[in-house]
Request: fold
Amino acid sequence: MASLESDSPAYTMAVRQFEIAAKRLDLDRDVIARLRKPDRAYIVSVPTRLDDGTVHVFTGYRVQHNDILGPFKGGIRYHPDVNLGEVSALAMWMTWKCSLAGLPFGGAKGGVACDPTRLSRQELQAMTRRYTAEIRNIIGPEVDVPAPDMGTNEQVMVWILDTYSQHRGHVVPGVVTGKPVEMGGTVGRREATGRGVVYLVAEAAEHLKLDLSRCTATVQGFGNVGSVSAVELAKLGIKIIGVSDRTGGFYDPKGLPVDGLLQYVSQNPELAGCPYGEPISNAELLELPCDILVPAALGMQITGENAGRLKCRILAEGANGPTTLEADEILRQKQVFVIPDILANAGGVIVSYFEWVQDLQNLFWSETEVIRGLKRILTKAFHEVLDLSQKEKTDMRLAALMIGIRRVASAMHWRGLYP
Ligand code: GLU
Reply:
């Protein structure tokens, strides 16, 4: 079993980011010691009967980093690379993300190490229900509220809701967010992360005085976040010249038809074989000349090795942790304007917050209300981060981390150490 501290590049990166921001904030030594580690980390075995009759024991995780500001909140990821270190890093980033957006939530993340594309619907359902049963005592609307992340979707959220509700004896819609609207979900949650990325790109472009209608963009990842980002960028008149998913990418300097791409992925499991543009690799996609690059796939894609070859003006991090610390340094020198993950992709958890509020009140909002609220929170956070980065002469990532961490640290001072 990987040790939290030493064996995971993602966790090492998250802790290092935290330490840099904490030093800059001159945080109390005791507070730093507490926030470096998660409150709790659960590892569960998830025995699942496969379609061939055999039982496979998957490993599942739920890491609760900090709940000083409210119930734990964060997605559940199904991916072969899921491990304790990665989930712990993602949980820590959720704490800063919720705090930066001013949401009354702490940070958590969960996951099961599996390849969901190779499981049948029945296998996926059985695995999800058993995983839920294993963590049911540590989740709940007032305790810890999961949501979709990479490899999970609305259907997985409903299986979690149903399993949890079966154990409680009554339906508990507020136990997860990212549900379908018919099941107590909110309008606008599915699009929220991608929409948020693009609102922030528009804010950044205004700050940099870029004319978006003359800009080009590339998007890595064509799942929920990547595809919605591409749609919303195109709506602003931005030419999408490259897209990719785990099977590879496609490039057309004259612009790819976003509607055609969406139609293709609605009929095929991946982008592979799509008839538009020239095929390129994921690594090549990142280095294409463009104004806006949106990494919306895995972590650690932009590294000390390739950052020097990036040719974008704005890097809008739809994914969590796509840029390593070494890359950050290079991007700073190249004056790439980075919209850091905890800000760029916060739209998802912001609308999750709206969903949770609606579930607790049994009162549902219109799409206009959801969009207005999302824009208001993101625009405010963007300007807070930009102002601090200018005042402190830091990059956007450090400023965003400083704001997120400062609120958590201040709440810790108010509450004190128990007992
Ligand atoms: N998984 C998403 C994230 O990383 C959403 C979390 C949520 O809605 O709770 O921000």
